[in-house]
Amino acid sequence: MGRVRGRVAIVTGAARGMGASHARVLAAEGARVVLTDVDAAGEGVAARIGDGALFVRHDVRNADDWARVVERAEGAFGSVDILVNNAGVADHEPIESLSEERFRREWEVNALGVFLGMKAVVGPMARAGGGSIVNVCSISSMVGEAGAVGYTASKFAAYGMTRVAAKEFGPKGIRVNSVHPGPIDTPLLHDAPGSADAVLMMKEMSPLGRIGAPEEVSAVVLFLASDDARFVTGSGYVVDGGLLA
Ligand SMILES: NC(=O)c1ccc[n+]([C@@H]2O[C@H](COP(=O)([O-])OP(=O)(O)OC[C@H]3O[C@@H](n4cnc5c(N)ncnc54)[C@H](O)[C@@H]3O)[C@@H](O)[C@H]2O)c1
What we know:
Blueprint: E1 8-12, H1 17-28, E2 32-37, H2 42-49, E3 53-57, H3 63-77, E4 82-85, H4 100-127, E5 131-136, H5 149-169, E6 174-181, H6 187-190, H7 195-205, H8 214-225, E7 236-239
Helix pairs in contact: 1-2, 1-8, 3-4, 4-5
The structure holds nicotinamide-adenine-dinucleotide (NAD).
């Protein structure tokens, strides 16, 4: 308990799935949390967490939205110490049929959103004396996934930006790491076409024989956000039940 007590965290894509779980876990460990999402369902998630949480409607593709989120965090809680860039979208189309518009959408949410987020918090975190940024990437940041060109490209980009930011922000006391989930039990996984067969196949391929729970990724996010990881930066943590092995 209390591993991030006194810290202020922003978690994007927190209306459901893993983002909601990261927000709950950080709050349970003492952080005050700003939950953001394009989906207003985040309001209810924040209300259930209680006094130390608030929701801001936020499109991670929009720099003005980012400025508002940081302003709300500093106004309500006094600083920004932790950013979890979790919002993400996934399409499932081969290169030949994926439209330029859908590719741009994945690119803008999963890669541009991460860039804008890091850019928005670096000043406030440096003023607060340091901080921790966790970029939620994927095992698709490490291997090519057929039928997921926009997702794979944007997640590779987010992994690369993590390493650049770790080098640029280290002297300011800001650590930047990534987590790389495998298949995790969220709407994003289950909404994919043919997901039932894909999940079955991934379970069979996985050394642990199952898909993961959101809280199992949140545990690694919490570690990276906390002082337990004070000498960890520029690193990518795979949380996939051994699938990549
Ligand atoms: N579920 C998995 O198997 C899996 C595996 C690897 C990586 N991931 C990554 O984990 C993260 C969370 O995924 P999830 O499985 O919880 O998905 P999810 O679809 O359940 O949740 C994603 C959230 O992001 C929000 N979002 C989408 N576009 C947004 C935007 N432009 N601005 C702000 N919010 C936006 C959605 O409204 C949603 O609430 C994503 O980055 C995803 O790519 C998921």
